[in-house]
């Protein structure tokens, strides 16, 4: 059955936004790239056509994010729950990193972007693992934006692994219970390879109009600003990113404290 998933016209090609090029830019942006399937269904195309278009959009948004001065871009490309999808779709998704890096590594190098990956990479097919590890190797000396793919990633599993790792260190006498704090725990998470000030996204974007976190970076988004865009991921273009950044710039980030004027 063909179902049409409506999107608000004004967001499909967003032309008005409050982005200020001189304003603050979030250092770490994370994106839940949702809506590939619906994008394809609206065009009477197979779902995988949406994933292919989604992959092309990753290229576009990566370049723009890097040029805007974002330091880390974390993209939710495959969750631990996505294995439940039909085999053909999973196989297609596992081929995407191969196609993506085959064609895009030279541009990543030209943009000085460094590739990283987090998740249960050892459970991915060999060709997918090879593609991501080759890309990491080829871009390891780049000093610009980190393009961090979450692949076979689930946040609860990540937190549990961190808890087990800390518990093992306590058992071995390497860490005392009193020493366990935010920094120590954050270091055990999959984002622990990033500099401490870059580990937590300042802005989390989810596309497609869904307003859920879906087991993504649960610890790390404690103080993130959330932006939900109605655009399906393949339609989320440069203007949509600027709109999300403009939205971020309007927010009043207090981290549980008060504004100066409120303390008077
Ligand atoms: C969610 O949309 C999207 C995914 C599960 C896959 C995301 C992957 C990409 C955007 C490409 C990644 C590129 C690389 C290089 C790894 P959905 O299928 O759940 O959409 P729906 O909610 O409309 O069905």
Q: How would you describe this protein?
A:
- The chain is an alpha/beta fold and 264 residues long.
- The chain has a domain at 24-45 and 56-153 and 201-247: Undecaprenyl pyrophosphate synthetase.
- 41% of the residues lie in helices and 13% in strands.
- Strands 3-4-2-1-5-6 form a six-stranded parallel β-sheet, with helices on both faces.
- Residues 8-15 have low confidence and may be disordered.
- Farnesyl diphosphate is lined by residues 33-38, 51, 54-55, 58, 77, 82, 93, 96-97, 100, 149, 208, 233.
Which CATH top level class of the domain at 24-45 and 56-153 and 201-247 fits?
Answer: Alpha Beta
Estimated helix fraction: 40-55%
Mean pLDDT: 93
Percent strand equals 5-15%
Q: Distance N terminus to C terminus?
A: 61 Å
N to C succession of SSEs: HEHHEHEHEHHEEH
Q: What is the 3D form?
A: globular
E-strand count: 6
CATH topology of the domain at 24-45 and 56-153 and 201-247: Undecaprenyl pyrophosphate synthetase
Which second-level CATH architecture of the domain at 24-45 and 56-153 and 201-247 applies?
A: 3-Layer(aba) Sandwich
Keywords, please?
single chain; 264 residues; alpha/beta; Undecaprenyl pyrophosphate synthetase; 6-stranded parallel sheet; 6 strands; 41% helix; 13% strand; binds farnesyl diphosphate
How is the topology of this model organized?
Elements: H1 9-12, E1 28-32, H2 36-42, H3 47-68, E2 72-79, H4 87-110, E3 114-118, H5 126-138, E4 146-153, H6 155-171, H7 182-188, E5 203-206, E6 225-228, H8 238-250
Parallel strand pairs: 1-2, 1-5, 2-4, 3-4, 5-6
Helix pairs in contact: 2-3, 3-4, 4-5
The protein binds farnesyl diphosphate.
Farnesyl diphosphate (FPP) binds at residues 33-38, 51, 54-55, 58, 77, 82, 93, 96-97, 100, 149, 208, 233.
């Amino acid at each position: 059955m063909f179902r049409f998933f409506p999107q608000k016209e004004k967001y499909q090609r967003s032309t008005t936004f409050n982005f200020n090029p001189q304003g603050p830019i979030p250092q770490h942006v994370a994106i839940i790239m949702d809506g590939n399937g619906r994008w394809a269904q609206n065009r009477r195309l197979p779902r995988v056509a949406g994933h292919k278009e989604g992959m092309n959009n990753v290229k576009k948004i990566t370049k723009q994010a890097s040029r805007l001065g974002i330091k880390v871009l974390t993209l939710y490309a495959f969750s631990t729950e996505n294995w439940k999808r039909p085999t053909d779709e999973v196989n297609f998704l596992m081929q995407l990193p191969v196609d993506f890096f085959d064609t895009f590594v030279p541009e990543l190098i030209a943009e000085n972007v460094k590739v990283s990956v987090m998740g249960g990479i050892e459970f991915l097919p060999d060709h997918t693992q090879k593609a991501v590890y080759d890309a990491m190797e080829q871009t390891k000396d780049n000093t610009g934006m980190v393009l961090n793919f979450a692949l076979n990633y689930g946040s609860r599993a990540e937190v549990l692994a961190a808890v087990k790792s800390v518990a093992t260190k306590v058992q071995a006498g390497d860490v005392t219970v009193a020493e366990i704090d935010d920094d120590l725990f954050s270091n055990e998470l999959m984002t622990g390879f990033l500099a401490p000030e870059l580990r937590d996204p300042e802005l989390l974007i989810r596309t497609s109009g869904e307003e859920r976190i879906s087991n993504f970076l649960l610890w790390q988004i404690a103080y993130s600003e959330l932006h939900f865009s109605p655009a399906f991921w393949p339609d989320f273009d440069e203007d949509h990113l600027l709109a999300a950044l403009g939205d971020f710039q309007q927010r009043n980030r207090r981290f549980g404290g008060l504004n100066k004027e409120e303390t008077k």
